[in-house]
Amino acid sequence: MQEIITGLGCFTPILVVVVIWLIACIRVINEYERAVIFTLGKVATKPRGPGLIFVLRPLQRAVVVSLRTVVLDVPSQDIITRDNVSLKVSAVVYFRVLNAQQAILAVENYYYATSQIAQTTLRSVLGEVSLDELLAEREKLSQRLREIIDTSTEPWGVEVTSVELKSVDLPEQIQRAMGKQAEAEREKRAKVIAAEGELMASQQLLEAANKISQNPVAIQMRYLQTLTEIAVEKNSTIVFPLPVELLRLMERYSGKPEVNP
């Protein structure tokens, strides 16, 4: 019996090593992850996961890839627009891995590669448009950037879901010029609105004059209404309106030449 116990004692270190090795070979893959398994350098047919997987080390190696959407912050890029305006533009790129196996096999580092292609595409696309187009058509430019970047990353198993222009830093001289332009535009609209108001007022006055001229009594009623308004504001003032025809008649009988208004 003692010999058996002694024999088992010799195998104890081996059992401990085997247990540690088995524990090390067990990997837990989350729901949003996939594990690409390499056996002696050859990739498995399909990625594994999620859940508990067994990696036969050192013959097998597992590379875990996240399938969640990644937010990539594109730093400010120096852009020279088509109308020779120098500015800085930053953007945000949203992408996710659709095929974990292609993301590992097709490119060395899909995150770094996507970042670089986003920066170069941002500079090339925005360099083809003018400053006014960049400020007025940001949504259209964002869609164009997404399509170009997604086409480049598709062979890597990466899908670009959205690209948004984050900020546009204009030079101080351009900001002052745009401020003057906006002020001039507001003054222009104010003058146009005032002219339209004068035109509408003149049309209303012309229409009122035509209606009053159809009935001589209407002008007398207007005189009385004016007297009533003056009497309410200034009780000590008495106004007697005289028709222009009466003044012309007095000038005619006085022998003075008639004045044509």
Give the helices and strands, then pairings.
Layout: H1 2-25, E1 26-29, E2 33-39, E3 42-43, E4 51-54, E5 60-66, E6 70-80, E7 86-97, H2 100-105, H3 110-126, H4 131-136, H5 138-153, E8 158-169, H6 172-213, H7 216-233, H8 244-254
Helix pairs in contact: 3-5
Structure summary:
The chain has 261 residues and is an alpha+beta fold. It is 54% helix and 23% strand.
Structure notes:
Helix 3 crosses helix 5. The model has no long low-confidence stretch (mean pLDDT 83). The chain folds into four domains: 64 residues, no CATH class; 101 residues, Tetrahydropterin Synthase, Chain A (2-Layer Sandwich), CATH 3.30.479.30; 42 residues; 47 residues, no CATH class. The protein is an alpha+beta fold and 261 residues long. The radius of gyration is 43 Å and the shape is rod-shaped. The longest helix has 42 residues. The chain has eight helices and eight strands, in the order αβββββββααααβααα. It has a three-stranded antiparallel sheet with strand order 3-2-5. A three-stranded antiparallel sheet has the order 6-7-8.
